[in-house]
Design a protein that fits this description.
Layout: H1 39-44, H2 52-65, H3 69-85, H4 89-105, H5 109-125, H6 129-145, H7 149-166, H8 169-185, H9 189-205, H10 209-225, H11 229-245, H12 249-265, H13 269-285, H14 289-305, H15 309-326, H16 332-355, H17 359-368, H18 372-383, H19 395-405, E1 407-415, E2 420-426, E3 432-438, H20 441-456, E4 477-481, E5 491-497, E6 502-506, E7 516-519, E8 523-529, H21 542-551, E9 566-570, H22 591-594, E10 596-599, H23 603-616, E11 622-629, E12 633-634, E13 643-644, H24 649-661, E14 667-669, H25 674-677, E15 684-690, E16 693-694, E17 704-706, E18 716-718, H26 719-723, E19 731-735, E20 742-745, E21 748-751, H27 752-758, E22 763-767, H28 773-789, H29 793-807, E23 817-821
Parallel strand pairs: 1-9, 9-10, 11-14, 11-15, 15-19, 19-22
Antiparallel strand pairs: 1-2, 2-3, 4-5, 4-8, 5-6, 6-7, 12-13, 16-17, 17-18, 20-21, 22-23
Helix pairs in contact: 2-3, 3-4, 4-5, 4-6, 5-6, 6-7, 6-8, 7-8, 8-9, 8-10, 9-10, 10-11, 11-12, 12-13, 13-14, 14-15, 14-16, 15-16, 16-17, 16-18, 18-23, 19-23, 20-21, 24-28, 28-29
Length: about 800
Amino acid sequence: MQPHLLQKNALKNIVQYGLVVPICLITLVVSCTSQFSSPSVVAQNSTSPKSEADRLFQQFFEQMQAGKWDNAVKLGQQALIIYRQNKNRSREADILGNMGIAYRAKNNYTQSLVYLEQTLKVMQEIKSRQGEWTALQQLALTYRALGNSEQAREYLERQLKLSELEGKPGWKAAALANLGLVQFDLGDYDQALKSMQEQLNIARKISDSRSEETALSNLGLVYETIGNLPKAIAYYEQVLQRKKERNDLTGIAYTQGNLGLVYRAQRNYKKAIPALQQYLDAARSNNDGRGEWVALNNLGVALYESRQVNESIATLLKAIKVQESLRVGLNDTNKVSIFEMQAMTYGTLQLAYIEQNKIADALEIAERGRARAFIDLLAARIEENPQAKIPPPTIAEIKQIAKEQNATLVTYSVIHQTDEIFIWVIAPTGEITFQRLGIKNKELEDLVIKNIRSIITQSHSLERGGNNIGFSISPGDKVKFKDDRPNSQSWDVLKVNSEAQTIKVRLPDFTSGTSFDRPIKDVVAKVSTNNSVNATANVKYEGLQKLHKLLIRPIANLLPSDPNAKIIFIPHRQLFSVPFPALQDDKGRYLIEKHTILTAPSIQALQLTRQQRGRITGNGKNVVVVGNPTMPKVVKIAGEQPEQLASLPAAEIEAKAIANLFNTKPLIGHDATKAAILPLLPKARIIHFATHGLLDDKRGLGSAVALAPTNQDNGLLTAEEILKLKLNADLVVLSACNTGQGRITGDGVIGLSRSLISAGIPSAIVSLWSVPDAPTADLMTEFYQQWQQNPDKARALRLAMLKTIQHNPEPKDWAAFTLIGEAN
């Protein structure tokens, strides 16, 4: 099997090779693609004499064939200038396409995409169907190499449709080959097998032996992944026999590599390790950096599993070095995508170090393997240099960060390979303690998801997530009305008149017999009920207690006894969704009752947010407060008409109360537009949004806060837009739903919170779920009152939560919010 991006002789052949990253172990397989026209092909289609540009193109092509990418790029750029001057669009398109291939071979994926997008545009303009087809395929191959399989699938579906429109079975077979691999990447194994089998049928029908070989390879990969190892071996051996018949030495080595993975799965390491080493040697001889990384990873895992731990560590460290070189020059989105494919290397290396009881080394690797793209964004912001980079922290620097923060750092690492969670506790003194816990990945995911769902369904209220959830009201309930002030007491429901749609209510401190009738439509929240077992703060929540038992109890004796001493949790993967303040011990006490809590995406991020705070000290005098804008319309369900988000009366009360604390005027209703707000943000010291939040858990950057729409915009301020801002505020509070959520990746959560910190904010308060309108208003007003008395944000949030619990005891009403970044 031949799994690399571009071989020396790949330009001579129809077949080009791609790679794939399965769920359990990285594997490379054949991907059928075509090339753009060579100089000889161009010359045959041209009646003009050979020009200087053609001569440069010929030299460019020769350098590509020799694998001399830097020389090729220089020649290609010269030829491109002349072709454009002569308005030779066909040759312009060909040189653009081949430049895209050359840059990809240099592992410069950003430039590769730029050239290939230009290629696609020109091919469409000159109506070259074959060129358009090839450009779509090359774009898909590049995005897939970056790990962005969703984007790759989009291009391949367009390519498949074009193949069918043109009635070209060979085109269709190649499109199906790549589409099957992308479906495999995305875990859709049934569909992948269908695509690959259809490709195999077409290849045999048109007697295309190379396409048939590709299909056999890809089918072997899928069967290997789903655990049907005998069938996988059978397919791979058919491919190996064909490679031997053609004396394709590189193909033999790569196919041996895939067989090596099957042998590894069978725990036959005597066969697996030599086969994987052969694969590594071939990748290196072909200057295939990406293939070298994959080969090193596969070999390192096999060495670890065969108990050759020292050799495994050395191999995996080499893999990381190659991996990190591949990220150079990529934009943030593509760095995140490629990082997703590299997570296994970091996890296996942590396991190997723990095996040798090298706790500190494992912590360094855990930190090195998280939030690297995010760290690059922060470094670029601080240094005001887009190319700024900082190395991952050493263990000495990690200890120094804990000391500077004067906090206990708790770092979690979810190890999928062994279904474990690693926990490091770093005391302010620098002392490091380690714990390892066993829990199956699926059980952990279910526990977190079910816990969040159970919290959300505990009460029903008008939420800041775009949903007006209906609820019944009964005598004994406690409610809030739209004109209540923040921190006001809840009303006791004495009687319900369903016919008149009114309720009789009283406040707890009213004299006996005093009550009022109010319309049910004025109720904005049912904050608790005397009829519910969840009416008091002493209620025990099973899911919260299970999470406490898993994540906190093993390290409880290492946490500070002083409730004002800070703990900074650094979650990983699913744990980013855990509401740490609400975790409950077996006595029913919440973690926030005992500790002051913050979170961060990585330890090094704490160092950089501190630098950001130091940089902005003295900047920004204004306070920007936004509350209950005139709501925009959004599509809640795909395919349906947009609906206007519900008004949030308590959010308006909240904004007015907070603005009053800072002697400023809030932006409410029609005044709260992007055009009015965006110019104010760079000069603001504090930014507060009390509105609806919208979650994008697919891409992350589509997550948004709702503002008033205008004729110029839809009223949604997205994470992608925030990422481009330059902010100088000390604190941003997103008092809205799901603002701390997004697309969870190995680089952290891609969403609003990440964008805010990247835009220059040292501290942000965001939410983990759909928060209720009225209790949130109480919590936020109390937070600012506490913060005015004490400059410690984390302590102020803790005290606000404790105060809110007294009137709104259910975790949904107070536990969603988390402080990310700096406490002071």
